Amino acid sequence: MIPRLQGLSGWLLYGFAAAMMVFILTPILLIMVISFSDGYFVSFPPTGFTLDWYSKVLGNQEFIDALLFSTLLSLGTTALSLLLGVPAAIALVRGNLPFASLAKGLLLSPLIFPVLITGLALLQLFTGYGWGNAKLNLLLAHTVVTTPYVVRTVITSLELVNPSLEEAARTLGATRWATFYRVVLPQIAPGVVSGAIFCFMVSFDNYPVSMWLADSENTPVPVVLYRQIGTVFDPSVATMSTLIILLATVVVVMLEKMVGLRRAMAA
């Protein structure tokens, strides 16, 4: 259990945390409020209340298709990042590789480079090899960007696992797979779940990479939203943003409920 802070230091810490939450959430709440405005242009405070913008946006087939495409793309990216990131993290921590530090730096390098440059580099790579499948290119590009989050969180979890527990399981006759599934995985589950949530959110909200690789038939929702802002800045933009926030929140809550941190830590 995490100890409770008491006294003046506790109040200062909780006050600072509350102030930071207000600072972070206020712009999001303002966008949600503007989405109910009955004006034809974005203004605050809103001149009135209406749900017409939601009816208009939900009737926009381009936005609905982009929202569905982004959701499926993010889920696919998350699954692929876990399939690649978890074994990579285990190999770096348990594999006794001669160049583990170099390999770790290479795997985490997408976190250092600007995402815009990464997207441009991947566009040149795919174009050079003649890969014209936008869906596959977006999936691979998003996986390149998100896999380091899984590697980083799982490595942190693995470093906290006692290797003697694995050795004891192997001594008692457990296979490598059984040892991983019954001993290692329950202990690193918080890192795996955290990495999965990071992957989904980063992929779902990714614009710098998507803008290079999307086409007219496969367009993620951040690209559609950016185009909408460039055309006209009415409350429909705030409405689209609100729906994106709500959908992302629902998916994250569902992930937390199914295989969330509380359940993982209680395992």
The CATH architecture designation is Orthogonal Bundle
Rg measurement, Å: 22 Å
* Name of the CATH homologous superfamily: MetI-like
Q: Kindly report the CATH topology.
A: MetI-like fold
CATH class: Mainly Alpha
In percent, how helical is the residue content? Answer: over 70%
In one word, what is the shape?
globular
Order of helices and strands: HHHHHHHHHHHH
Overview of this structure, please?
The protein is an all-alpha fold. The protein has one domain (60-266): MetI-like fold. The protein is 76% helix and 0% strand. It has twelve helices and no strands. The protein has helices at residues 7-34, 52-58, 61-94, 100-108, 115-128, 134-159, 163-171, 176-204, 210-213, 221-231, 235-259, 261-266. Helix 7 runs antiparallel to helix 8.
Secondary structure topology:
Blueprint: H1 7-34, H2 52-58, H3 61-94, H4 100-108, H5 115-128, H6 134-159, H7 163-171, H8 176-204, H9 210-213, H10 221-231, H11 235-259, H12 261-266
Helix pairs in contact: 1-11, 2-11, 3-6, 3-8, 3-10, 6-8, 7-8, 8-11, 10-11
In short:
It is built from twelve helices and no strands.
Comma- or semicolon-separated keywords:
disordered C terminus, mainly alpha, 12 helices, MetI-like fold
